[in-house]
Amino acid sequence: MESITIPKAILFDWDGTLVDTIPGLRMAHNHVRTTLGYEPWTEAQFWENLKHSARELYPHVYGDKSDEALKILYDFVGANHLNYLSELDDARAILDFLSAGQVPCGVVSNKRHEYLMRELDHLGWQEYFFDVMGAGVAPRDKPAADPLLLMLERAKIGFQPHEVWMVGDTETDLAAGTAAGCPTILITHGKDQDALIKQFNPLFSFANCSELLVWLQKSINSGLATKSKIKL
Question: What residues does each domain of the chain span?
Answer without folding.
Answer: 2-20+86-227, 22-84
